[in-house]
Amino acid sequence: MTITTDIAIIGGGLSGALMAICAEAHGFTACVIDAQPSHLQNFDDFDGRSYAMAHTSVRVLKALGLWQHLEQTAQPILDIKISNGGISETPSPFLLHFDHQDLEEGPMGHMVEDRILRPLLQEHLKQRDRIIYLDETEVIEHNSEQASSGLILKGQKTTVTAQLVIAADGRKSALASSAGITYSGWDYAQTSLVCALEHEKPHRGIAYQHFMPPGPLAILPLKNNRASIVWTETKDNAKTIMGLDADAYLDVLRPRFGDFLGDIRLAGKRFAFPLEMSIAKSLVANRLALVGDAAHGMHPIAGQGLNAGLRDIAALTQIIHDAKQRGEDFGSTAVLNRYQEWRRFDATALPLALDGFNRLFSNHNQFLQDMRALGIGIVNQFPGLKRHLMREAAGLSGELPELMR
Ligand SMILES: Cc1cc2nc3c(=O)[nH]c(=O)nc-3n(C[C@H](O)[C@H](O)[C@H](O)COP(=O)(O)OP(=O)(O)OC[C@H]3O[C@@H](n4cnc5c(N)ncnc54)[C@H](O)[C@@H]3O)c2cc1C
Q1: What Cα–Cα distance (Å) separates residue 254 from each residue in 8, 145, 273?
Q2: Ligand 1: distance of its center to the CA of 49 in Å?
Q3: In this structure, which residue's CA is closest to atom 6 in ligand 1?
Q4: Helix/strand/coil (H, E, C) string of 159-220?
Q5: How far is CA 295 from the centre of its chain?
C-alpha cells in the first residue's frame, strides 16, 4: 500500500505536530510518522518541561485555534529578574529587572506545561481531516526523486510518497544525515535538571534567572503558586544530584534557590536533560526541509528552542503556501531555497549567541565575571537597549512570518 500526501513529516514531537497542524490549516494534506507510541506522550511524566512561549509563538497558537485550550492553564510572564551568585551562595540581589510595562504588547510570553501542550497536539493530529498520523512507525529509508520523495517504513509493506518531506526528528536528525546534511556543534558537559515545585509565597508572574558558575538556575512561574525550574549543573554534579532522594535533592537546591518564595516542595517527578548544541549546515536538501531541533539544537539558557522551531514552521508554511497559490511546485529546490534564505541566519546565530551567554555566565573566571558585571551595568544604564532585549525575548524582532504578526 502507498500513502500519497502533500507533506510527510518525520517526528511527531512538538515541532512535527505543530508543523502538521499548521500545514493542514493552510490546505495541505500531511502524514506524520513517529517512532514512539502516541499514548506515551499523554502521560504526565513523559517530559517534565514547561516552555516559555514568546509573545509571537502565542500568536501562532492563537491563529491555529490551539490557544483557547491552553490559555486557562498558561501563566503570563510579567517580569524577568536576573542575579549573579556563587555555588551554595544565596543569590545576590537582583541586578537586572525587565518589566513588562515597558513593552506595549503586554507580557513577554506565557509558561505552558508540556503535560498540557503535548496531549493537546496529539489530539489534534488524530482529529484533523487532512492529517494521517502513524505512531510506532520508524522511517528507515528516504529516496528523493524529481517530482516526489518516497519513505520506507521499518517492518511495514506501506510506503509513503510526498511532494515535500519535513524532518522534525530532533537533534542530529537521522533523516537529514541520510540526505547528506552535516551538523556542527558540541557537547556542553552540562545537564539541565528539571522539575516543578510548589512554593509558599506568590511569584507574581516573575521569572527569575540566577547565574552560577556551573550553569544558570531558571525559576519560571506556573499557575497556582508553582514554578518550573531549569537547573543547569556540570554533568558530574547533575548525575550525583539526580541520584539523591527527593529530600536530599531539595536540600541541595534550597541554598541556590533562596527563600524569597518561602518553603519549596516537589510537585511531580524529576527529569534530567543532557545538553549539546547541533546546528544543521543546511536547512534544505532535495525535497527535504528541516524544522525544530532537527535544524538547530540550542542551550536552554533563554528558553528559545521551541520558539525558534515555531518560527521555522510559520516561515516554511508561508513560503510553501504562497508557492502553491502561484501554481509552483512547493517541494522544489527553488521554493525550499527561499526558506533556507529566510531562516538560515537565525538558525545559526541564535544557538551561537546562547552559547556565548552560557560561556560568559557559567564559569569562575574573574575577568569574565567583571565583564558580565560591566555588561549588566550597561544594559541597566540604557533603557533603549533593555527594551531591545525584551523585544528579542518576546520574539518581536526580525522579519516575522505572517502568523507571528
Ligand atoms: C531543559 C530544557 C528546557 C527547555 N525550555 C524551553 C523553553 O522554555 N522554551 C522553548 O521555546 N524551548 C525550550 N526548550 C527547547 C524545546 O524543548 C525543544 O526545542 C523542543 O522540545 C524540540 O522539539 P522537536 O519536536 O523539534 O524535537 P524532539 O522533541 O526531539 O522530537 C523528535 C521526534 O522525532 C521522533 N523520531 C526520531 N527519529 C525518528 C524516525 N527515524 N522515524 C520516526 N520518528 C522519529 C522522536 O520519536 C520524537 O518524537 C527546552 C529544552 C530543554 C532541554
Answers
A1: 47, 57, 21
A2: 11
A3: 303
A4: EEEEEEEEECCCCCCHHHHHCCCCEEEEEEEEEEEEEEEEECCCCCCEEEEEECCCCCEEEE
A5: 12
CATH of the domain at 299: 3.50.50.60
Cα angle 196-197-202, degrees, rounded to a multiple of 5: 125
Average pLDDT of every residue of the chain = 92
User: Measured in angstroms, how far is the CA atom of residue 149 from the centroid of ligand 1?
Assistant: 24
Structural domain harbouring 11: 2-66+114-184+277-363
Q: Domain for residue 238, yes or no?
A: no
Distance 305 CA to ligand 1 centre (A): 8
Q: Are strands 183-199 and 159-167 parallel, antiparallel or unpaired?
A: unpaired
Mutate to test the pocket of ligand 1, among 18, 19, 33, 34 (most ligand atoms within 8 A of CB): 34
Q: How many whole angstroms from 14 Cα to the centroid of ligand 1?
A: 6
Phi, psi of 369, deg, nearest 5 = -65, -40
Please identify which residue in the block is written with the cell numbers 525587565: 98
DSSP class of residue 49 equals -
Question: Where does the pLDDT of residue 88 fall: very low under 50, low under 70, confident under 90, or very high at 90 and above?
Answer: low
Ligand 1 nearest-atom number relative to CA 297 = 19
Q: Which atom of ligand 1 is nearest to the CA of 50?
A: 8
The reply to whether ligand 1 has any atom less than 6 angstroms from the CB of 10 is yes
* CA-proximal residue: ligand 1, atom 14 (nearest): 305
Cα angle: 104, vertex 105, 110; to 5 degrees: 135
3-state secondary structure at position 228: strand
84 domain residue, yes or no: no
The answer to whether position 9 is within a domain reads yes
3-state SS assignment for residue 384 = helix
133 lines ligand 1 (CB under 6 A): no
Verify whether ligand 1 is closer than 6 Å to residue 216 (CB atom): no
Number of structural domains, the chain?
A: 1
Residue nearest to ligand 1 atom 38, measured at CA: 169
Question: Does residue 105 form part of some domain?
Answer: no
Confirm if 378 and 385 have CB atoms less than 8 A apart: yes
Alpha carbon nearest to ligand 1 atom 9, residue? 303
pLDDT tens figures, 269-305: 999 999 999 999 999 999 999 999 999 999 999 999 9
271 close to ligand 1 (CB < 6 Angstrom): no
